[in-house]
Amino acid sequence: MAPVTGLAPPQAEPDPGGEAGGADLKGVARGGALGLVGAGVLASLNLVLVLATTRALPPRSAGVVFATTSLFLIAVGVAKLGTPTGLVYFVVRAKTLGHVPDIRRVLRTGLLPVLVVSLLAATALLIAAPALADVVSSGEPQAAIGPIRLLALFIPVAALADSALAATRGFETMRPLIVVDRIARPVGQVILTIAVIAVGTKSASWFVGAWVLPYLAAAVAGLAWVRHLARRAENRAGAPARAGFSPWGEFWRFTAPRGAQLVVQVALQRLDIVLVAALAGAAEAAVYTAVTRFLVLGLMSQQALTIAVQPRLGALLSAGNRQDAGTVYRVSTGWLVALTWPVYLTMAAYADAIPLLFGDGYQAGRGVLIVLAAAMLFATACGLVDVVQAMGGRTGWTLVNSATALAVDVVLNLLLIPRFGLLGAAIAWACAIVVSNTMSLTQVRLAMRLHPFGRESLVAMAATMTCFGPTAAFGLLASPRLPSLLATSAVATLLYAGILWRFHRVLRLDSLKGSLTRGRSRQSG
Questions:
Q1: Cβ-contact 15, 23 below 8 angstroms
Q2: DSSP letters of 355-407?
Q3: How far is it, in rounded angstroms, from Cα 17 to Cα 24?
Q4: CA angle, 290 then 293 then 298, to 5°
Q5: Which residues of 287-301 are buried (b: 16+ CB within 10 A; e: fewer)?
Q6: How confident is the model at residue 15 (pLDDT cuts 50, 70, 90)?
């Protein structure tokens, strides 16, 4: 799909500092640092939720919880219609082009259809609850009907919460998203889950209720916050909205492909859990879900950088400033590799120990961890390529790429799960990850003349492989005792810290350090 057209954007001014993208990198660093804190809290609390659920429930009941909440997230992904990306893009664009009074119309254009479609999705899930319960519960539908019906009622709530909080990022502030979605909501989920465990119930419906109820508070806070930001921006602009202006057509031409792509993306992340439950059983779905949640420890860095980079790239590409956009892309890739590769290599090293955290019956997750850790090394080396495509207006590409990857995933799951079980599902997902990223990387390079590879990413790759590659090999091949593996990991971490310090200028870590220093100064003042 061609870039979104409209009023001609102003020409980008040269960087007065003499370093392309310098100011933009500082903005990304500030947002990335805050986002990393929020993503770290979210990842940690999500892992606590999974551990609490697997420890409190037998594997079959835990599998029902994970499978039904996965269905819920797929339905919410459909109901959002891609508006999170569309709202960020058009709010940023309105500010960049000096059309701040049009933002309120943009918000209505995005949020009202989400409300309508989410109500329809909730109705459909209520009607289909008996059939879906039979699929995900290994022939015991009564265990899953209640959770599915409860979750259906919260689809509109979650869809509005996610869309409204995403819209706040268009105002180039991450505080609402971090406070509400990354901290308050998961904290509420953990507190309610602990309360359910304290009651002593083994009902999947109670655990599902504790997980979904905090979305209500998130929706109220998100809608109130985005309304406040829009009103404040209008007061500062002091100009009336353009008479007769309607963003409807342009908004949905951009957003509709992205909406379909996000549905496919959520399906890629969650459909395999449903397929494992249907083809191998609910207990196996619990094992698969538990061990794959450790991927979140690496994905949290990617999510933090995404929410920081997305509005910055949107502003640069809207202004036609491809040079600085390329700098942001390459440097953020170096940061992403530096943050995630140690996590995935360590995850592979501890593949024998991690499944034991969830209790008896979870040892089969070892192979899943190894396969998906390898796939994520490749994915993160491509950088935030999907964000670059979306903010460059190429949402049609992302749809085609994700749909292709989903087709690969589903076909391979159907072929491999009956024969290889959990390992087959992991191989299918890994192949889908490689296909999607390869296609996106090729398209961005050929059509947009952008790529993620530079000194930053190459130094980060070399550093992580030098320090953590031997640790991963030691853990996988020698099967060492845990104290020996911990000692090896500690040495690798110290060596890695020294290498990062030695090459901190190449990696542009001074931008991150400066942003944190200014943040502390503002807090003390």
A1: yes
A2: GGGG-TT-GGGHHHHHHHHHHHHHHHHT-SHHHHHHHTT-HHHHHHHHHHHHH
A3: 11
A4: 155
A5: bbbbbbbbbbbbbbb
A6: very low
458 contacts 332 by C-beta, under 8 angstroms? no
**Rounded Cα–Cα distance for residues 25 and 335 (Å):** 11
Q: Is 245 helix (H, G, I), strand (E, B) or coil?
A: coil
Residue 201 CA neighbour count, 13 Å, CB half: 14
Residue 299 has pLDDT above 90, yes or no: no
Backbone angles phi, psi at 21, to 5 degrees: 75, 10
Stretch 298-311: mean pLDDT: 73
The amino acid at 463: A
> Each residue of 358-384: pLDDT tens digit?
877 788 888 999 999 999 999 999 988
Q: Measured between alpha carbons, how far is 205 from 107 in angstroms, rounded to an integer?
A: 34
Residue 13 lies in a domain: no
What's the domain range around 108? 23-519
Report yes or no on 63 lying in a domain.
Answer: yes
Find out whether 426 and 372 touch, Cβ atoms under 8 Å: yes
Model pLDDT, residue 25: 54
Model pLDDT, residue 240 = 57
Compute the radius of gyration of the chain from its Cα atoms: 23
Predicted pLDDT of residue 27: 53
Read off the tokens for 148: 């599915």
Question: Residue 8, class by beta-carbon neighbours within 10 Å (0-12 exposed, 13-18 middle, 19+ buried)?
Answer: exposed
Collapsing DSSP to helix, strand or coil, 274 comes out as: helix
Please give the structure tokens belonging to residue 116.
Answer: 């309508």
State how many domains the chain has: 1
Closest CA to 67 of 265, 285, 215: 285
Angstrom distance (rounded) from CA 308 to CA 34: 9
Largest alpha-carbon pair distance within the chain? 71
Query: Does 288 map to a domain?
Result: yes
**pLDDT tens-digit series, residues 50-96:** 889 998 998 888 999 999 999 999 999 989 988 888 888 888 888 77
Would you state the structure tokens that stand for residue 61, as one six-digit string? 């009941």
The pLDDT score that the predictor gives to residue 43 is 76
pLDDT at residue 525 tops 50: no
Cβ pair 35, 303 in contact under 8 A:
yes
Q: CA–CA separation, 411 vs 425, rounded Å?
A: 10
Residue 2 lies in a domain: no
Selected residue with higher pLDDT from 509 and 512:
509
